[in-house]
Design brief:
Helix content: 40-55%
Order of helices and strands: HHEHHEHHEHEHHEHEE
Number of helices: 10
Largest sheet: 7 strands, mixed
Number of strands: 7
Strand order of the largest sheet: 1-2-3-4-5-6-7
Distance between the termini: 32 Å
């Protein structure tokens, strides 16, 4: 990925991923439920690409994909670096039913200030805080604060790097909505035998 970013190839890769996911969804509609959700990570370069939003809209129509099944994940730092264009892209795709999740939340310097203006549906608490929250009081306080602010704003909260049952228990006590990590489920390929690979789980 660093090499692709250096040579400005990430928008091409992101488009390839979007086409691949949408094609899979078209040919596996019978495997989906109304609550099926597929997350697609977007690079900062795609956020800054004025043509990317129209590309996604065209692909949604071409593959007849229900936008409500799609959630795009963008990192906090990438969204802030491309704020105006990111907001324009996010608003356009949310208007047709797609959702957006702010990844690695808490890693930026002005997280809460920008959160008020970004049109997102959920925030993923940076795993750097979650991983050591049982032993580091500051990390625990950050997870607690992010969860509380997220819920005040009506956002779903997701904790990354959840590696054991004890972290799951403490996150549940804090009211975090979903957990993602090896303590919940290990990554697995998207296939006909396992049509929906678990990315995060409600806790």
């Amino acid at each position: 990925i660093p090499a692709a970013e250096r040579y400005s190839l990430m928008p091409t890769i992101d488009r390839w991923v979007v086409r691949g996911v949408f094609a899979w969804l078209k040919h596996n509609r019978e495997s989906l439920t109304p609550n099926s959700s597929f997350s697609i990570n977007l690079s900062g370069q795609s956020l800054g690409d004025d043509a990317f939003g129209d590309f996604v809209l065209d692909q949604l129509q071409l593959y007849e994909v229900d936008p409500r099944h799609i959630c795009f994940e963008v990192t906090e730092t990438a969204a802030i670096a491309n704020l105006t264009r990111a907001m324009r892209l996010m608003t356009a795709l949310r208007n047709v039913g797609c959702r957006f999740s702010l990844d690695d939340f808490g890693s930026g310097m002005s997280s809460f200030a920008y959160l008020k203006n970004l049109p997102v549906d959920s925030i993923k608490i940076d795993g750097a805080f979650v991983r050591d929250m049982l032993t580091d009081p500051m990390d625990f306080a950050m997870v607690e604060a992010i969860s509380r602010i997220g819920h005040v704003m009506g956002l779903t909260t997701i904790a990354e790097y959840v590696e054991n049952d004890e972290i799951v228990r403490r996150l549940t006590e804090l009211g975090v909505d979903y957990a993602q990590g090896f303590g919940v489920h290990r990554p697995e390929p998207l296939s006909m035998e396992s049509p929906v690979a678990v990315a995060s789980q409600r806790i």
